[in-house]
Amino acid sequence: MVSGPPLSVAPGQRMLRRLRAHITYANVASTAALVAALGGGAYAASSTGIPDRHGVFHGCVSSPSGGSLRIVKKAKACHKGPQPELAIKWSQKGPPGQAGAPGSALAYAHITVAGGVSTVDAASSRSIVQSSVVHSSGDPTSVGTTCFRALGFTPHSVVATPDLSATNASGAVAAIGDLGGSGCPAGTVVVVRTESGPNTGADGSFWVLFD
After folding, report:
1. Rg, the chain, Cα only
2. Residue 53 CB-density burial (10 A; 0-12 exposed, 13-18 middle, 19+ buried)
3. Of 1, 4, 203, 205, which shows the fewest CB atoms inside 10 Å?
């Protein structure tokens, strides 16, 4: 027999020994079953009635206030009596939601501006027609100004934003009523001005919302 100081064991080896001590056939079998349920066994589970033919999963919770969950084929499999289980169900795909309420906007429009002409993009507009839109033909200070008239409704507020995907304008301002020096024709009820900088008008496409 050879005597000597005890051999040191690296921390990693000690961890492996602890893991080996807790690895049992039951551990391995449960892990395999979990992996199968989450992935490869999905088809087999479906063919045995989980989920049911409507795509609904059924389960039993051990306590109404929360507890362990077990998956069952039908809700009637949940325990009743002194220690009842809470029956729950959920779908792989939820039912379609209800249609949302109509928006409150009176009208909206996408206006493209090129060569000093403002054009209504009819496919992206509602309740705004070309005859109601004209590009300002005033002095140089009115560059980038589009005028709206004969709208057929009374706007209480208006919001404009530049179409950054189709224009060099970086901003847009809107106002109800004809602004002095805008170069808009008589009867104008809304004015939109696109700008490339503060107080610097520039022709550019934009979106406008009337409410």
Report:
1. 35
2. exposed
3. 1
- Whether 115 and 202 map to the same domain: the answer is yes
CA-to-CA separations, 29 to 22, 33, 110, 153, in angstroms, rounded: 13, 6, 62, 72
Residue type (1 letter), 51? P
128 and 146 in contact (C-beta within 8 Å)? no
Distance CA 167, CA 188 (A): 24
Range of the domain at 32: 12-42
Q: Are residues 34 and 65 in the same domain?
A: no
The total of structural domains in the chain comes to 3
In Å, how far are 74, 78, 84, 138 from 81, measured between CA atoms?
18, 10, 5, 86
What whole-number distance in Å separates Cα of residue 10 and Cα of residue 2?
A: 22
Say whether both 175 and 114 belong to one domain: yes
Identify whether residues 118 and 183 lie together within a single domain. Answer: yes
The answer to whether 144 and 202 have CB atoms below 8 angstroms apart is yes
How far apart CA 47 and CA 34 sit, in angstroms, is 17
pLDDT at 149 over 90: yes
pLDDT digits (tens, 9 = 90+) for 177-194: 876 667 888 899 999 988
Residue 167 lies in a domain: yes
